Amino acid sequence: MILTIPSFALFGLLTILLGIGNPAVELGLALYALLPVIRNTRAGLGSVDPAVVDAARAMGMGPAQVLWRVELPLALPVIVAGLRQATVMVVAIATVGATVGANDLGQPLLEGIRGDDRDAIFAGALLVGLLGVGADATLAALERGLSRSRG
Amino acid sequence: MSGGRRPGTLRLALTPFAVGTGLLVLYLWVHTADVPPEEASVLSAGFLGTRVAQHVELTVTSFLIAAAIALPLGVAAARSGRALRVPLLLAANLGQAVPSIALLALVFTVTGFTFRTTVIALVVYAVLPILRNTLAGLQGVDPDAVEAARGMGMSPVQVLARVEVPLASPVILAGLRTALVLVVGTATLGNFVGGGGLGDVIESGLTASGLEPASRIVVVGAVLVAALALTADWMLGLVERAVVPATWEER
Amino acid sequence: MISLEHVTRHYGDRVAVDDLSVEIAAGELAVLVGPSGCGKTTTLRMINRLVEPTSGTIRVGGRDTRELPVTELRRSIGYVIQQGGLLPHLTVAENVATVPRLLRWDRARTRARVEELLELVGLPPAEYASRLPRALSGGERQRVGVARALGADPPVLLMDEPFSALDPITRLRLQGELLRVQSLVRKTIVVVTHDIDEALRLGDRVVLMRTGGRIAQVATPGTLLAHPASDFVAGFLGGDRTLRRLALVPLRSAELRPADGAAAVERVEAAASLRDALEAVLRSPDGRAAVVDGDRVLGVADAEVIRRAAATG
Question: What is the pTM of this model?
Answer without folding.
Answer: 0.76
